[in-house]
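Input record (Table S2, row 183):
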Amino acid sequence: MSPAHLTVLSGPSGVGKGTVVAALRQRCPELWLSVSATTRAPRPGERDGVDYRFVTRERFAAMVAAGELLEHNEHFGNFYGTPREPVARQLAAGVPTLLEIEPAGARQVRAAMPDARLVFLTPPSMAELRRRLVGRATEAPELVAQRLARAELELAAAAEFDAVVVNDDVRRVVARLLELMAE
Ligand code: 5GP
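Output record (guanosine-5'-monophosphate complex):
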């Protein structure tokens, strides 16, 4: 893997980014995953400082105002952002770094850090994405409908990315990501 590279994995909500990241980290333990700040409430089992930094809206706004976030965006009523300093520190130390964020945030990273490698994960089909969102069962049916509508818009962003990978098989996706990260 080339040293000190920033990879941004993005794609629509429900495409399976989390599963891919978990499998990728198993294959590549030296990869450092950024911990985002969010105003959303923790889900069962999520740990503060590990899965996310869970912050109040006031704290999030203060982080934005102080320029502490590399990128940030609102996603279904909650705010999400990537703390800038830890990413800079890892990259400066030569540690390969990964962000897992939604497409609008990825676009902001591209503008701030043109060398970042942007990878877009797509579902094999919209039908499959619907199946995954329903199967996840963490969201009410009206939220699933909202997420599908947003996914249609987000899929249009794929062309702006350096690589588009279809999430049909996690092992294949991880192998492809490792290839891209080695370029
Ligand atoms: P969830 O609430 O399901 O954990 O995440 C919702 C969406 O927010 C996902 O698409 C996830 O990739 C995205 N996300 C997580 N962290 C960040 C972040 O720091 N910045 C941006 N722009 N999106 C994020």
